[in-house]
Amino acid sequence: MQTYKISISDTKKFYESLGCDSGGISILSKKSKLHTLYIKNMHVGAANILKQDALSIGAELAVPSGVIIAQDKYVDAVLIGTTKHFETLARKELAQPFGLKELAKSLKDYVKEQNYKTKIMGVLNANEDSFFKNSRFDNSQASFLIEKMIEDGANIIDIGAVSSKPGSIAVDENIELLRIKDIVDTIYKNKYYEKVDFSIDSYSPKVIDYVLNKGFKIINDITGLQNDEVCKIASKYNAQVVIMHMQNNPQTMQKEPFYENVILEINEYFKNQIQKAQSFGIKDIVLDVGIGFGKTLEHNLLLLKNLEHFKHFGYELLIGASRKSMINEIIPTSIEDRLSGTLAIHLQSIKNGASIIRCHDVKEHYQAIKVFEAINSIN
């Protein structure tokens, strides 16, 4: 008899290859993945109940030492268990007091299976002040660059005409539309939208309405649907909407950004903006934590490391860290030399739950993602 430790990425596929009984594969899969859930400001009564219930099924709740004597009224805790444990606790806590009923309703969301295909969103900028010069274009180059991105493996092409880099100034929507109109008309005329999806990087209702009427399908809104008119237009065209988080605005966002808890605050922001989108009839939503938009290096790293948390909303997650300054803060590097750091961030983001990667370097990302997927497809 020989043994060796294995790493299983797709438990169902592994148990099928092992020849397990079909009825048991789902059960085994739910017992194979371990989850760690941080619970903040939990009533001490809830902590004591949940700890006993967790222990009774083989899970665990880590709590401060004074919980058993109710030393503090509210405590933080960490719930540790498998998918099966979380599902069992979701049923057990429904009848319990101290806020456990609300916790029970969310436990299943944290372990829900999601299988989104990874998509590459290539970036094209129709403005002269975008931070990475190689992403800029004029109309004479547009068709060539679009065809090259499609050939290189892009699933989505994101086009913008206004810079959102730190310190950038807002542009009048008429100027924005003038910058982008010809290329949008070219896309429509050549029917490029039949080969790849097009996204508009804008929060201007006038621009968004124009491009959605010309074959674009996605609104990439850095303001996260703050403008009701954008919501109305998105609903009118049944467009997919990317809700991004940004603290303050591009002019001020990097002036000492501060959060009490960046994960919880962005979680609350997404909750509110999703509700707003749904109230306008918007159904197709993508979430973007907004790397570099009102965040320090530590904030960015925490969001990337804990990206999987935001999967509980049930929507696709987008990450766009392409050549951003956080790489320079880790290791001083010019914008032109940040491809390696970009790939490292984006591959880790896919591992942590992202399914849409917004980048400048489509060909290199396509190769890296295919290799990454090949490694993770083996059980």
Automatic annotation (TrEMBL):
Protein keywords: Folate biosynthesis, Magnesium, Metal-binding, Transferase
GO biological process: folic acid biosynthetic process; tetrahydrofolate biosynthetic process
Domain spans labelled Pterin-binding: 118-370
The protein's enzyme class: transferase
GO molecular function, one term: metal ion binding
InterPro entries: DHP_synth-like, DHP_synth_dom, Dihydropteroate_synth-like_sf, Dihydropteroate_synthase_prd, Pterin-binding_dom
Pathway as given in its UniProt record: Cofactor biosynthesis; tetrahydrofolate biosynthesis; 7,8-dihydrofolate from 2-amino-4-hydroxy-6-hydroxymethyl-7,8-dihydropteridine diphosphate and 4-aminobenzoate: step 1/2
Domain of life: Bacteria
Cofactor(s) listed: Mg(2+)
Keyword Secreted attached: no
GO CC, any one term: cytosol
Catalytic activity: (7,8-dihydropterin-6-yl)methyl diphosphate + 4-aminobenzoate = 7,8-dihydropteroate + diphosphate
E.C. no: 2.5.1.15
Descriptive protein name: dihydropteroate synthase
